[in-house]
Amino acid sequence: MKRNQNRESSGYHIIGYSLLKARAIPLLLLFSAVMITSIWGYNRNMLYFGYALTAISITAYFIIGMRYRVEKSLKTTSEHIVYFPLAGKVSSIKEEGGKRIISVQKSFLDFIDIRSPHLLCRRDTGDLIIDEIELKIIFTEGKIKMFEEESFKPGNIIGMAQGKVSYTVELSAEHDINLSVGQELKAGSSVITMLEYAPIIEVIDTTIPADEEG
């Protein structure tokens, strides 16, 4: 149980470490500004330069923090529901060849966490696929990083998306959806579609009976 909890929280740790690395440069600039104003503060030009560098570094520090925001208030997930993996806004909904295609745009300041849409999901060269219902999630534009070792428990963090990102959700037009263009979406909470049944997840028992050991 403890191993599963650590697995679920590791996505937060990866994103937190990425944020720390991204903030290293503003922190170095702030340190430099403090040194400049302390050592050459008697020189008016250097003093003003130090103040300007301080303002730039603090602004950059907070902007970077806004870019790495993670959604933490998720609803309890259900095996009957397929969720959107990434926050954003529905930009279009159309039908082509018996498929319904939902296009989503993530803005610069939307939450960056990519979450598992369903336990039956799998990766395929960066795309997310649920074979049982012929659903495919394709990231078409933007900087995407997937965490290879993360589980697909619904709502679990499986990657992150920085800056502006576009993706599409392709599913059969037979699936009912309750979406509209312009609708705001939350990763791991907003619903793509409902399943009519709880999928059967095969669990392989790898334990060895006591009488067969040794």
Q: In brief, what are we looking at here?
A:
The chain contains 3 helices and 10 strands. The chain has helices spanning 2-22, 24-39, 44-67, and strands at residues 81-83, 88-96, 99-106, 113-115, 122-124, 127-130, 135-146, 157-172, 184-185, 191-194.
Helices, strands, pairings?
Elements (H helix, E strand, L loop, with lengths): L1 H21 L1 H16 L4 H24 L13 E3 L4 E9 L2 E8 L6 E3 L6 E3 L2 E4 L4 E12 L10 E16 L11 E2 L5 E4 L20
Antiparallel strand pairs: 1-10, 2-3, 2-9, 3-8, 4-8, 5-6, 6-7, 7-8
Plain-language structure description:
The chain is α+β, with helices and mostly antiparallel strands. The chain folds into 2 domains: 66 residues; 110 residues, no CATH class. It has 3 helices and 10 strands. The strands form 2 sheets. Strands 2, 3, 4, 5, 6, 7, 8 and 9 form an 8-stranded antiparallel sheet that branches. A two-stranded antiparallel sheet has the order 1-10. The longest helix has 24 residues. The two termini are 27 Å apart.
Distance between the termini: 27 Å
The major beta sheet can be summarized as:
8 strands, antiparallel
Uncertain segments are 1-6, 200-207
Number of helices: 3
β-strand percent reads: 25-35%
Structural class by sheet pairing and helices: alpha+beta
Share of helix among residues?
25-40%
Number of domains: 2
Morphology call: elongated
Number of strands: 10
What is the typical, i.e. mean, pLDDT? 84
Q: Spell the H/E element sequence.
A: HHHEEEEEEEEEE
